[in-house]
Amino acid sequence: xxxxxxxxxxxxxxxxxxxxxxxxxxxxxxxxxxxxxxxxxxxxxxxxxxxxxxxxxxxxxxxxxxxxxxxxxxxxxxxxxxxxxxxxxxxxxxxxxxxxxxxxxxxxxxxxxxxxxxxxxxxxxxxxxxxxxxxxxxxxxxxxxxxxxxxxxxxxxxxxxxxxxxxxxxxxxxxxxxxxxxxxxxxxxxxxxxxxxxxxxxxxxxxxxxxxxxxxxxxxxxxxxxxxxxxxxxxxxxxxxxxxxxxxxxxxxxxxxxxxxxxxxxxxxxxxxxxxxxxxxxxxxxxxxxxxxxxxxxxxxxxxxxxxxxxxxxxxxxxxxxxxxxxxxxxxxxxxxxxxxxxxxxxxxxxxxxxxxxxxxxxxxxxxxxxxxxxxxxxxxxxxxxxxxxxxxx
Length: 394
Description:
This protein is of the alpha/beta class. Among the domains are: 59-168, Rossmann fold (3-Layer(aba) Sandwich); 171-297 and 362-392, Response regulator (Rossmann fold, 3-Layer(aba) Sandwich). Helix content is 39%, strand content 17%. It contains 11 helices and 13 strands. The protein has a 7-stranded mixed beta sheet, sandwiched between helices. Strand 6, helix 6 and strand 7 form a beta-alpha-beta unit. It is globular and about 65 Å long. It starts with a helix and ends with a strand. 43% of the residues are buried.
């Protein structure tokens, strides 16, 4: 009996083990998680086009004693820089020195170089000594100096391969002014220069010769009268205005104001006297209704052409040129001049003669040579003329 119970228990145990095993085997399998689809590749972000670095300026101009809107030398040069830069999408900037000194000019040039300048334009003879210093200090930078050539203060000219020196035939520009104004009918003239620097002297000497040539063409019997002086500065001042006013009151009909801001003083005097002014360097017709014409250097074109030569790989470094009528280096702005009788055809005819060298126009050096005396003793009264009477006022 005991054995039978044991057998029954053993049998029940086996049955229960089998039942649990079967249940376990019949459980549904847990489905595998489906693999996530691969994410599409993120397209590469396109590279942004290169932009000029902030505060980097390839082209620079350093002003002299004036500003870029002085309606004279600085403005003419700046217009050339600006025109070329805008047309060719090149960065540009001007720098105005803190004072009129070699040190201040050199400091401004250093700022331009630090800002990435490749070409630096410097208008005026005041840059001659500073350019002599910086042209060797910054051999990889190109310099364009207008109305000057680098020297160490001794006038021993040294033009490095990275410097281009540009002069102008101011005697031709002055000749055009004197010729046109006499042909217009004026015979009582004035020349009021700033300082007696070579460029101003050449303007004045050409003015006298132009008046002489026109007087001969017209067969004038009475001499053309010209009051002639240098005021000793390039400023707009009460003193300069008073001098111009006294000339107008004495009968002067037109004054050639050849001295930067001196012109502003002459224009005020002309407005009060209802008389005329000849502007200088750039077209100054917008400055006053009294400006009948302007004796111009083609500053903007010469700067524009110099920059074009640099970017074309033909920068004329190491050279000095004098731009004259043959390359349109000088001119009158006929489209804005206020002539009543001197016409475009008259201008074209005399300009063609100058280009063809059919007229001998003496510059300052030629007048000194002709006078046969020391340069410091030569004045406009030494110009060989017969139909012009020059009164030099010191």
